[in-house]
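Hey, quick one: can you model this chain's 3D structure?
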Amino acid sequence: MAEAIARRRIEELGWSQVEVGSAGVGAFDGSPASGGALRTAARNGLDLSAHEANLVTRELLESAHLILTMSASHLARVAELGAGERAALITDFTSPGDADPGWGGVPDPIGGSDEEYGQTFRVLEGLVRRALERLEAVVTP
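Sure thing. Here's the predicted structure for all 141 residues.
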C-alpha cells in the first residue's frame, strides 16, 4: 500500500525522476497483494491488482538511494544485507530530531480485518506525505 500511495503522491508532485518500489523481508516473490490491501486500496482510489511481492535482496537494495522500512526488524535485515547507511525506519525519517516519535513502526495488518487495513492505510498516507515533504528540498521537478 505504501508504494501505491507514494506513486500517486509523486505523480501529483510531478517528480518524474523519483522511483519507488517495495519489497518484504518475508515476501514470496510474485505473490499478489492480500485481499485486505486490495479492498482498502480500491476504497482509496488505488489499484493493487497488478502488484506482485518482491523479497528484499542485496541486489535490490544496491539500486536504492533511500530505504524506508516499516519496522525495526525490517531495518535490521536491510543492515544485514549491507544497506544500513541508506536506511531508516519510516517513523524516524518522518520525525527528524525527535528522539522517540512514539510510533516504533507501522503495524502490519496482514490477517487482520478491513478496518485494520484502513487504519494502516491512513497511517501510511501520513508517513508517505511527510517523507516526501522531507525530500522535497532535494528533488526538483
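One thing worth noting: Residues 114-135 form the longest helix (22 residues).
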